[in-house]
Design brief:
alpha/beta, Rossmann fold, 12% strand, AAA_dom, ParA family protein
Length: 300
């Protein structure tokens, strides 16, 4: 079970859009996925059209037992293959600025309950996507304590560089505090307008500073995203040219996620390949081939 945090320390850049797009790509490729809505705004829960539950992620963070975790998980309205650990406004009470180690470890313990409580050899979820709030309090740090990968989300504005740098620093700090498995998967640039000189400049600036961590495929600014979310449908099922363009980017991102998961399992066989995948970012033709191979394996 690979845990991936969708992270931004600048509000309004589309971290929930990335979490939902990745979940939709996973569903389309047969990868059973749990979306954990840690944002007190609970936008991911709404967009996923989650069914009713008798608990929420706030209750899980109060008491991360197996019973509470299962009561807080609902099937999504998207259909089979995507469930939701539902969000709520009450989650804000867990967003302390200076939490202790026990508080930070509650989400990880809750997800361990899912691993350890699985029936049979298969884990209940292959992928867990955590939608973080846009702040570096207890909630985001809890996600980073539980995750193996972090997707850093930004937009091409003048504040993008500082926001990505702070998010990257947060990942590095959590690695040093006690989660050495955590790695930045890459930087996803969202809401990019073609032939916009300011956007082109900011993307170049990001690539100059963060190099291969910045994904070569950017997410274009398309109304299809808002339309699909308003209809509580994955972008993969919104049949417009703009939606298909965006879906292709999320398919590539999913391939990168699955490849890093495979690399973790096979590290003893191919250390060099694993090190490259841990860095994330753009690895040209051989990386693209590896990503596509990971998607083909997932579809079997």
């Amino acid at each position: 079970m690979l845990v991936v945090a969708s992270l931004s320390l600048k509000g309004g850049v589309g971290k929930t859009t990335v979490a939902l797009g990745l979940a939709g790509a996973a569903q389309a490729h047969g990868v059973r996925t749990l979306v954990v809505d840690l944002d007190p705004q609970a936008n991911a829960t709404v967009a996923l059209d989650a069914g009713p539950t008798t608990a929420t992620v706030a209750d899980v963070l109060d008491d991360p037992t197996t019973a509470v975790v299962h009561r807080a998980i609902a099937p999504s309205g998207w259909g089979e293959g995507v469930d939701v650990l539902v969000g709520a406004e009450q989650t804000e009470r867990h967003n302390r600025p200076d939490p202790g180690a026990a508080q930070l470890g509650r989400l990880a313990r809750a997800l361990d309950r899912l691993r350890n409580g699985a029936d049979g050899p298969e884990e209940p979820y292959r992928l867990v996507i955590v939608d973080c709030p846009p702040s570096l309090g207890q909630l985001t740090r809890s996600a980073l304590s539980a995750a193996q990968r972090a997707v850093l989300v930004t937009d091409p504005t003048m504040f993008a560089v500082s926001g990505v740098q702070r998010a990257f620093d947060a990942v590095q700090s959590e690695r040093e505090r006690g989660n050495p498995d955590l790695q930045p998967l890459g930087v996803v640039v969202n809401r990019v307008r073609p032939r916009n000189s300011e956007h082109e400049f900011r993307i170049s600036e990001l690539r100059e500073l963060f190099g291969p961590l910045v994904f070569s495929n950017v997410l274009p600014d398309r109304s299809a995203i808002q339309q699909a979310q308003g209809a509580c449908l994955p972008i993969q099922r919104w049949d417009t040219p703009g939606a298909r363009e965006i879906s292709a980017v999320f398919t590539t991102l999913l391939g990168r996620v699955l490849r890093t998961s495979r690399s973790r399992r096979d590290r003893h066989d191919d250390t060099a390949a694993s090190n490259e995948s841990d860095l994330g970012g753009d690895r040209a033709d051989d990386d693209a081939a590896a990503d596509h191979q990971a998607l083909r394996e997932a579809a079997r």
